[in-house]
Amino acid sequence: MSEKRALTKFLRCVEWSDVQEAKQALEMMGRWEMIDVCDALELLSPVFESEEVRAYAVSVLERADDEELQCYLLQLVQALRFERTDKSCLCQFLVQRSLNNIELASFLRWYVAVELYDPAYAKRFYCTYEILEENMMKLAGGPNGEEDGFKLWQSLVRQTELTAQLCSIMRDVRNVRGNTQKKIEKLRQLLSGLLSELTYFEEPIRSPLAPGVLITGIVPSESSIFKSALHPLRLTFRTQCGGTSKIIFKKGDDIRQDQLVVQMVSLMDRLLKLENLDLHLTPYKVLATGQDEGMLEFIPSRSLAQILSEHRSIISYLQKFHPDEHGPFGITATCLETFIKSCAGYSVITYILGIGDRHLDNLLLRDDGRLFHVDFGFILGRDPKPFPPPMKLCKEMVEAMGGAESQYYTRFKSYCCEAYNILRKSSNLILNLFHLIAGSNIPDIAFDPEKSILKLQEKFRLDLDDEAAIHFFQDLINESVSALFPQMVETIHRWAQYWR
């Protein structure tokens, strides 16, 4: 029983309806060497119904620090669906941990509030919401002027009031006839006039996206509207420490799937950095505040479509910001390295998560050379276009590295393989998190949860050792790239059509 990884496998084999066998299994579980947090997540999946097993899993989770817990919070809230009672150990644990950390409390409240719209589980989530509210209200203020529980809870409730006001602004702005400019004028007029209380809040509000940041009001002159069907708002908030915080507010779009993907990008970024591999990813913050509304962090950047239409190539765009006549392709070595690393990171992650519908409008580039992806309406292999290539690499990205024969492209491939093997080591954690979210209302998972998770598992190629995985991944890149450069192969590959 010193082989801790074997516990979850052992518990899967127990015939829980046999009282004697179940009793013996629980005794053995108590004597087993303590399992890792990653394996404890598996014991919270719907496969395990025993309350004792689930309580044991929660006792293991207590060892995780707040930062790690926040990485899994989205899934742990979904796991409440699989509990036998409303006031389960898992529910009590999440509430207790949140009482000591306002960021955890803020996210827990939002994740639970969004699930109140699900009729099958509304009662369960409403109960969790009430327990959080009751316990928070009881908190006493600290000796150093820390807020008491009532004030803390009010600071979270005001986030909901803010999002309700933003929804009402969106309705007014959408009703304005005319072009986007007319709508922007209406937005600024509303913020400066009728809704001027939004320009300077009576009291600071915790930012729903980053609860550690206190926002004090909206800057009308720096707020705008995106030119798209749903007219999302781009708002600039003042922060209490004298800075600004830019967010996008969307209404009419279910962004829970985006929230999940960006959470996974953030987790994978953490896993890579723990192995000293920083691929300059951009895990911007996303928070669903309802079934069809939410906030996203605004990252100053431009789409590859915009860049290519104005500058003809990625390199000539980067030369504008980081010129270096002695550097590779006339840009600084640091900028090119940042670009190559971010391309590698997102190539691996979009492959593993099966991100579809990639085009030059949802690939963005920051001034420092960091490339990142947005808009995740198609995941786990779904794609609106036929014959999606396994690797989401476009021709212009490869050209910016000097083409498929250059040393920089070779370095790109080496970063890809290193990242792939690091993430394969954590496949168990990633798959366990997807098992917990299998019961949620996220479209591309809810459709066929078992098939979705199998597809994800296949991407890790757990049948291969590290060396074989490197060969496999290099072949994958070579196939996808040769499709982009028809002169390298005899027949024009149908994958090349994907980017047209």
UniProtKB/TrEMBL annotation:
SUPFAM superfamilies: ARM repeat, Protein kinase-like (PK-like). Pfam families: PI3_PI4_kinase, PI3Ka. It comes from the Eukaryota. GO terms for cellular component: endosome; peroxisome; phagophore assembly site; phosphatidylinositol 3-kinase complex, class III, type I; phosphatidylinositol 3-kinase complex, class III, type II. Its EC number is 2.7.1.137. PROSITE patterns: PI3_4_KINASE_1, PI3_4_KINASE_2, PI3_4_KINASE_3, PIK_HELICAL. GO terms for molecular function: 1-phosphatidylinositol-3-kinase activity; ATP binding. Residues 1-135 form the PIK helical domain. InterPro entries: ARM-type_fold (IPR016024), Kinase-like_dom_sf (IPR011009), PI3-kinase_type3/VPS34_cat (IPR057756), PI3/4_kinase (IPR015433), PI3/4_kinase_cat_dom (IPR000403), PI3/4_kinase_cat_sf (IPR036940), PI3/4_kinase_CS (IPR018936), PI3K_accessory_dom (IPR001263). This is phosphatidylinositol 3-kinase. It comes from Hevea brasiliensis.
